[in-house]
Design goal:
Elements lengths: L1 H21 L12 E4 L12 H9 L4 E2 L2 E4 L5 E3 L11 H4 L5 E3 L2 E3 L7 H4 L20 H8 L4 E2 L2 E2 L2 H5 L5 H11 L15 E3 L2 H10 L6 E5 L7 H7 L5 E4 L1 H6 L3 H7 L3 E7 L10 H11 L4 E4 L9
Bound molecules: SN-glycerol-3-phosphate and calcium ion (CA).
């Protein structure tokens, strides 16, 4: 009996996957095809969020390059994943007396340092001596490298913690994009811009306070955020969802539900060495893009993107 049920379940799952694979692909601008996003640059081959990683991403023909954003003490947007500097720089050596202890851990918050101070840090040596001397780039420096060659998909990181310090990350982002002529959809056809955030408040601020007309993705990481009623609430505020891989594999209807609401689906994060049951990261990305029909993938390994 158990075997019969298992077989029936397997057959029905296979049939449903096949039916899904046969459905025509919808296009969600500014994506025009299965889309490659270089996660923190080409962070598989160079230290994340360095100009070297962004240049490698362009060499790998990334459609978009991702900068995560933090704000310095003097209000400048820099590209860094963490809110603190110690994981990816030598701040501990350069500024040994400037840490704070938070939850029993010594940390060096970005917001405690001016841009001039952050420029003194080495953001490459943690990955290997060959990367010594790489710096933490500003968003402007990132744009200078990528504009005209690929899209840019900035993430407002921990915006609430900056808000508490009187720093308006969404406003700084829109100012910077405006200065570069990138603040409207289609403003620079060679450099489409999509904004992403885990923070619904940040998305609301972008839309309502800063009148952002660019496509915005809501980053999702909890099953409750991926329920169809939650997706329906996002409609009108966001143009797409960006769930992690587990949310997509855990709910066979998620992609279809999002698409039915007109929301694109961008999935994170595809990494060589963390591919679950797939032999390679290329195979894993191909499964998500061409069988599950997601629209775009964030990957540390843009050079492994499956051919289109
Ligand atoms: O923004 C997509 C993905 O990067 C979210 O995770 O922590 O790497 O920023 P994280
Ligand atoms: Ca990110």
């Amino acid at each position: 009996m158990r075997l019969t049920i298992a077989l029936l379940f397997a057959c029905s799952a296979a049939t449903s996957a096949l039916a899904f694979a046969d459905e025509p692909r919808r296009v969600f601008p500014p994506y025009s095809r299965p889309t490659l996003i270089a996660h923190r640059g080409d962070s598989g081959r160079a230290p994340e969020h360095t100009i070297a990683a962004y240049k490698l991403a362009l060499e790998a023909n990334a459609d978009f390059v991702e900068p995560d954003l933090q704000v310095t003490k003097d209000g400048v947007l820099v590209c860094l994943h963490d809110t603190t500097l110690e994981r990816t720089t030598d701040v501990e050596t350069v500024f040994p007396g400037r840490s704070r202890t938070i939850q029993g851990r010594k940390v060096w918050p970005v917001a405690d340092f001016t841009l001039e101070e952050i420029r003194r840090l080495d953001a490459g040596s943690w990955r290997g001596p060959e990367f010594r001397g790489l710096r933490v780039p500003t968003l402007q420096e990132m744009i200078d490298v990528v504009k005209g060659h690929a899209g840019i998909i900035p993430e407002t990181k921990a915006p609430e913690s900056y808000e508490a310090l009187g720093l308006d990350m969404a406003g700084l982002l829109m100012d910077c994009l405006r200065k570069n002529g990138l603040d409207g959809p289609g403003a620079d056809p060679k450099t489409p811009v999509v904004v992403q955030s885990f923070s619904l408040d940040s998305i609301k601020s972008l839309r309502r306070k800063h009148h952002c007309r660019l496509p915005i993705l809501a980053l999702l990481q909890k099953p409750a955020q991926a329920r169809s009623d939650a997706l329906a609430e996002l409609k009108g505020l966001a143009d797409g969802i960006a769930p992690n891989k587990e949310l997509v594999t855990g709910d066979p209807e998620l992609v279809r539900n999002a698409h039915a609401l007109g929301l694109s689906v961008t999935v994170w994060t595809f990494r060589a060495g963390r591919t679950g049951s797939f032999a390679t990261v290329r195979d894993e990305m191909a499964h998500f893009l061409y069988e599950l029909k997601v629209d775009a993938v964030f990957t540390d390994n843009p050079d492994q993107f499956p051919g289109r």
